[in-house]
Design brief:
- By secondary structure, the protein is mostly helical.
- 68% of the residues lie in helices and 0% in strands.
- The relative contact order is 0.10.
């Protein structure tokens, strides 16, 4: 067992259980006080483990936030990959693009703070598995429209619009309504993925 690393596939059952318990405890703390208030000390106390265990599991606070965001977004990933339409398969790609943004905006209050907090390290923000998968999904949908010259770059443009820090700023400091942001998303998708012949 000594050569086995801490990958999800190789974690022993008890370690996996502890990992899940840490994430659930972190979600409870974030729900109670916001992402900025979450500390490694508080998490260790809440989960009844040593602080060293928290650091060994996540490496840093940014690593914890990324793992927590990934944990919180599992349901969203399942919905856009395998769920019912229009977010999931079964409708034209443009409809799924529109549904993706609407769903992301609707979940801002739940995952926005986590996503913003997970973006602390600029070297890793674009490589986070949740972000990478979402970007590839959007690029695939854009490619399927047949009207987007550079689907990969366009997917980055769409992801930039859905950046949690930006959306929280627009909602909070700028006072923009959710319906205004939804309209902006629809206009952006419409500009990037124009229907054939338009």
């Amino acid at each position: 067992m000594g050569g086995r690393g801490p990958s999800q596939a190789g974690i022993r059952v008890d370690a996996a259980r502890n990992h899940h318990r840490l994430l659930e405890a972190a979600l409870e703390l974030v729900a109670a006080g916001g992402a900025d208030a979450l500390t490694m000390d508080d998490l260790a106390e809440r989960a009844h483990v040593g602080k060293g265990t928290v650091f060994r599991r996540f490496g840093s606070r940014a690593g914890l936030m990324q793992a927590l965001l990934d944990h919180a977004e599992q349901g969203f990933r399942t919905a856009y990959l395998f769920g019912p339409p229009p977010l999931g398969p079964g409708v034209p790609p443009r409809d799924r693009l529109l549904a993706f943004g609407r769903a992301r905006l609707a979940s801002l209050a739940v995952t926005g703070e986590l996503a913003r907090a997970a973006d602390v390290d600029p070297r890793t923000r674009y490589q986070h598995p949740s972000r990478s998968l979402a970007r590839r999904h959007l690029a695939g949908l854009l490619r399927l429209t047949g009207t987007v010259p550079d689907p990969e770059l366009a997917a980055y443009q769409l992801m930039a619009f859905l950046d949690a820090g930006l959306l929280l700023h627009l909602r909070g400091e700028e006072g923009m309504s959710l319906s205004r942001l939804e309209t902006g998303w629809e206009e952006l998708v419409g500009a990037l993925a124009r229907p054939a012949g338009s």
